[in-house]
Design a protein that fits this description.
- By secondary structure, the chain is an alpha+beta fold.
- Helix 3 packs across helix 4 and helix 5 packs antiparallel against helix 8.
């Protein structure tokens, strides 16, 4: 079976799981013509302009402090001064991250602060000197200056030249009135002069300027891409620290989800089967007392108690199925998802294309993911039909639930899909929602296979 896999994106412009969504703004001009006038281009240009003074400041500070501290290493003052120099580099790095955030829209997390293993100055100095983040900030100060100089010169040259030539018809009159020239001197050797002064030459100059104006935003964007790489790679936290932070966050999500599941099970037992069994015990006690005095009434009460037993057993089965269904363990996702689909309020077509079974934990997460998505279809979508597709793509387990309902599903904070996305993220999974207003809705989940 061939599956259409939607692009991986989530849409956070909607307010509820199934509601209205803001339509993206449409532009009449193509991006190539619109680029020179966009705020992004001018913000990036300002960033490149500020590169030079910031690069000079960072470079001079780095060279000066490192040279002084290196010269004093023969004394006791050299080591603490070197640590202080590295802390200064981290402070300048914070300024650079703020500048990138404000002008490039680049969000780079701040590295973890330096903490010594013990209290005291020397412990702190040792922690600073052993910190790879601190040395990466110093390396940024050294490497960024030549790039800052290059990007400043190129961006200013292209931008100023492009706009000057493009607007040449508007200011060409300056030359004959104030410089005794007919126009821009394209060639002059003292005896022969060639000026851009005829209407054709002026128009051609403007066209050349227009080409440079249209090319400048993409050149600027390419140069700021290098800055982005340097800021992320040298001024951000290390990959290991980032991964540790992600794992700590995922662990919190798993713990919270497990606690919520336990509270749900306790509530279902207390309010459902337990309360029903207590009432059943009381009814059987009353029937026992009336057994000799009023056998017919006792028989009716026993019959009612029998019905209560059936209801209690069904509730316990549903609760057990909600914890981990036996059909999933015994027969796999195909049978388990077919069982879930049969309980949906709309017809659901299930297609499972798996040659083998994934890890049990992943299989369970996949089952509950599809179950929750089908519950959303039943409660919120207003759909007339739905489909569930499951397949394997390399080392990923793919799930796709689609319906023809009203659309407007989203993963905004506080929604059911947001919680589902967090639970999938805790196991390195991804949730992708494609749900334009008016439908249809397609929700795709990716999970690691983990055989």
């Amino acid at each position: 079976m061939k599956h259409d896999r939607p692009a991986r994106r989530t849409d956070d412009s909607m307010a509820t799981d199934y509601g209205t969504r803001t339509q993206p703004q449409r532009h009449t001009l193509p991006p190539a013509l619109r680029a020179p006038f966009t705020g992004r281009t001018w913000k990036e240009f300002v960033y490149l302009l500020l590169n030079l003074p910031m690069g000079i400041l960072f470079f001079v500070y780095t060279i000066t402090t490192i040279s002084v501290s290196a010269g004093l290493l023969v004394t006791f003052l050299g080591i603490p001064l070197l640590a202080a120099a590295l802390i200064g580099c981290r402070a300048l790095g914070a300024v650079e991250r703020t500048r990138a955030r404000a002008l490039l829209g680049l969000e780079v997390a701040s590295p973890l602060p330096v903490r010594g293993e013990k209290s005291g100055l020397m412990s702190w100095v040792g922690a600073v000197l052993k910190s790879g983040v601190s040395w990466r900030h110093l390396l940024y100060g050294l490497l960024h200056f030549p790039w800052a100089l290059f990007s400043f010169v190129v961006s200013v040259t292209f931008t100023v030249t492009g706009w000057s030539l493009f607007l040449y018809p508007l200011w060409q009159w300056v030359f004959p009135e104030h410089t005794n020239q007919d126009g821009i001197a394209l060639f002059s050797d003292g005896t022969n002069d060639f000026y851009l002064d005829t209407p054709f030459e002026i128009a051609a100059t403007s066209v050349v300027g227009l080409v440079l104006v249209l090319a400048s935003p993409w050149l600027i964007r390419g140069m700021t891409a290098v800055d982005r790489l340097m800021v992320v790679g040298l001024l951000g936290p290390s990959r290991l620290a980032t991964r540790v932070s992600e794992l700590e966050s995922d662990r919190g999500v798993v713990v919270d989800t497990a606690a919520a599941d336990l509270r749900r099970i306790e509530r279902d037992l207390h309010d459902g089967a337990q309360a029903r069994l207590v009432a059943l015990a009381m009814d059987l006690g009353l029937a026992k007392e009336k057994l000799l005095a009023d056998p017919e009434a006792a028989a009716r009460m026993v019959d009612e108690a029998h019905g209560e037993v059936k209801v209690a057993l069904q509730e316990l089965r549903d609760l057990a199925r909600g914890i981990h269904p036996a059909v999933l363990t015994d027969r796999g996702l195909d049978a388990a998802l077919s069982s879930v689909a049969s309980r949906c309020t709309v017809p659901v077509q299930v297609e499972v294309d798996l040659e083998s079974r994934p890890a049990a934990a992943i299989e369970g997460i996949a089952y509950f993911t599809v179950s929750e998505l089908l519950q959303n279809v039943s409660k919120h979508s207003g759909a007339s039909r739905a489909s569930v597709d499951v397949w394997r793509m390399e080392d990923r387990l793919m799930l796709q639930v689609a319906d023809d309902g009203r659309g407007g599903a989203n993963t905004s904070s506080g929604s059911g899909l947001a919680g589902l996305a967090e639970r999938l993220d805790a196991v390195d999974g991804i949730l992708v929602v494609d749900s334009p207003a008016g439908g249809p809705t397609t929700v795709t989940a990716e999970l690691p296979w983990r055989k």
